[in-house]
Amino acid sequence: MKALKIALAIVISVTSIFWASCTLIKPAAAEPKVQTANVQRGDLTIDITASGNLALAKTEDLAFELAGYVSEVLVKEGDQVKEGQVIAKLDTTDWDKQVKALDKKLTAVQRSLTTMEANLTKAQRQVSTKEFAVQQAELAVKTAEDNLKQITEVEAAQDEIDKAERDMKYAQTVLETSMKSASSGYDLLALQRTVINAKEQIAQAQKNLQDILKGISVKVTSNVALQVTTSQMQIEQGTRALEDAQIAVDDARTAVANARLDK
Description:
By secondary structure, the chain is mostly helical. The chain has helices at about 1-25, 95-150, 150-180, 190-215, 220-260; strands spanning about 70-75, 90. The longest helix is centred in the middle third of the chain and has 57 residues, at about 95-150.
């Protein structure tokens, strides 16, 4: 037991000596060094030395449809921009004046065009009105002529003329045929006298009709003469109205043509 205590004492002593030696051998920690400097305001200058070409990764050329002066720049040098972003504005004072002047001219032209179109429409309506007047005048003349022809004495005189003209035409046809054929069997002298008599009858019938129309015929009463005169006056008035209406139509058509040229 005593020997065991001596051994433990030796081990503890050796351990203490080893721990003490390790503590004595460990080097001491170095103290940090502190440097001080004065801070001054100024530009930071860094020199870089390299070889090559200096160029932007992407460049864009600015172009405007119209010449002018830049009134405002909306970005600064070095700013990043996006496609479609407004980066500058031009002074549009002169352009605005020009636009206003052109707007006034356009308005004036549009008003002028509206006036021309109105004139054209008016002229076309006048043509239609004048053409209707012509139709009315033609109807009036036709009615007056029919009224004149329906007077019994005038109608009888005209029938006499028509009959004489038919007789003469027939006699001339037979005469011409007989002269071409010797075996026709017709008396050429008699046919010639028939033609001559038919011509005389036509002339007399035409004279009778003219006397009636002039109001100097002794075969008609004063009442019939008045009817004839009235009908003739209506025909004359209708004829004049028809002529005036035709002139008016021509003038209206000329106005339409001019209006189209102006347009």
